[in-house]
Design a protein that fits this description.
310 residues, Rossmann fold, Helicase, Ruva Protein, domain 3, 2 domains, two-stranded antiparallel sheet
Length: 310
């Protein structure tokens, strides 16, 4: 490991008297080898626009600015503004638009706010990639939100808690399979995962981390139902894991139990099935049936049309 990033990160902490806030999940990068790994996996071009969540001390932000056209960097802790700007060399802009000057900061827009409450759809220029050392508390919710709201992002290269990475990749029937698993697998493909040493962060976290690379699926492979409706159905289904799917949907969506039973039966699964037994694609069908009683024939033509097609 070279010492450049470690020196920059620790120097910024000392220079500005920064004490990492554990309640915000602040574990700063101090190993510059990981920057090369992230950039290689991200495959950014000079035309790309990168979304970064958890900019911290700005070391990843600066590296991204050197490879891409623009970086939208979010940091919820306004107390890090001074060291972040110092790392970027000045010139970083606030909100929409980059800053002035010719350094890395001139290609960066800084947002000191909660990314989960930000109007991500209005970012200009629109992001095409996402690279982040995601704070543990927002990792899962952010991935779900961005996959739904930012269709222009084609690849994610994010550092997350190992447990979150396991949930993303979990297959049906496992304890870790849930809302995040279904959503990630319906909207993206997990390209690769890579364990990360705790020593690349300061302070050392008490949990293991994983680098996850996701590629968004092409439009023709995305769910053919509204994202809001699909999300509501998935969340209702897993809202009470110990209950059967029928009871969870009835309670979570306010459906008559008889209607919920009819929808589940139409999937061809037993009435006592629980949400974790369904494959991701079955949630799409479930959402479509819950929204439209006539879904059975939708997209497949009428019985007469199917017979005519042979």
């Amino acid at each position: 490991m070279t010492s450049g990033l470690r020196q920059v990160s620790l120097a910024r902490l000392a220079e500005f008297g920064i004490v990492p806030k554990r309640d915000l999940g602040q574990n700063f990068l101090i190993d510059d080898n990981i920057l090369g790994v992230i950039l290689a996996q991200l495959e950014s071009t000079p035309a790309d626009v990168v979304l970064e969540v958890g900019a911290g001390l700005g070391v990843l932000t600066s590296a991204l600015a050197g490879a891409a056209r623009h970086v939208h960097a979010f940091e919820v802790d306004a107390g890090l503004e001074a060291p972040l700007r110092a790392t970027l060399g000045g010139g970083a802009g606030d909100g929409a638009g980059g800053g002035a000057g010719g350094g890395a900061g001139s290609k960066v827009s800084l947002y000191f706010e909660d990314v989960l409450r930000a109007p991500l759809e209005t970012l200009e220029p629109p992001p095409t990639l996402c690279a982040s050392n995601l704070p543990y508390s927002v990792a899962g919710p952010f991935i779900i939100e961005s996959l739904q709201r930012l269709p222009g992002i084609r690849r994610y290269c994010v550092m997350v808690q190992r447990e979150v990475a396991e949930r993303m990749a979990a297959p049906p029937g496992t304890k870790t399979y849930g809302v995040l698993s279904v959503w990630v697998q319906l909207y993206s493909r997990i390209i690769r995962t890579r364990p990360l040493a705790r020593s690349i962060f300061y302070p050392r976290p008490n949990v293991d981390s994983t680098l996850v690379v996701l590629d968004r699926l092409p439009p023709e492979r995305l769910p053919a139902v509204g994202a809001e409706r699909l999300r509501a159905v998935i969340q209702a289904a897993f809202g009470q894991r110990r209950k059967t799917l029928v009871n969870s949907l009835s309670a979570g969506l306010g459906l008559d139990r008889g209607r919920a039973l009819e929808i589940v039966a139409a999937l061809g699964v037993p009435a006592n099935t629980r949400a974790e037994r369904l494959a991701p694609a079955q949630f799409v069908e479930l959402a479509a049936r819950a929204e439209d009683p006539g879904y059975q024939e939708r997209g497949r033509g009428s019985k007469e049309e199917r017979r005519a097609d042979g």
